[in-house]
Amino acid sequence: MTKCYLVANVIITDPARYAEYREKVQGIIAQYEGKYVVRAGAVHPLEGDLGIERMIMLEFESMDAARRFYESPEYAPLLKLRKETTRSQVAFIEGMAAA
User: pTM for the complete prediction?
Assistant: First the structure.
């Protein structure tokens, strides 16, 4: 099975309200068996301007697992909150199949 990564570049526009998202989302990610790979670490550009401000990368066991998280009723109110408190670019990226 091929792992799936949810990758997001998040620009926070309302820090006070975003704090609620950050506090509550961890439990839902874990509930859907996701885990943080990158969580807003320092970005050190090497070539070009990537436009990355706050990079988040989550790992899920499959694309289906990632979609179940993202489309879940538990995440829906937090997704709405994140969209209201940030400017974000978000994508699913398929990992390489195990050899």
Answer: 0.91
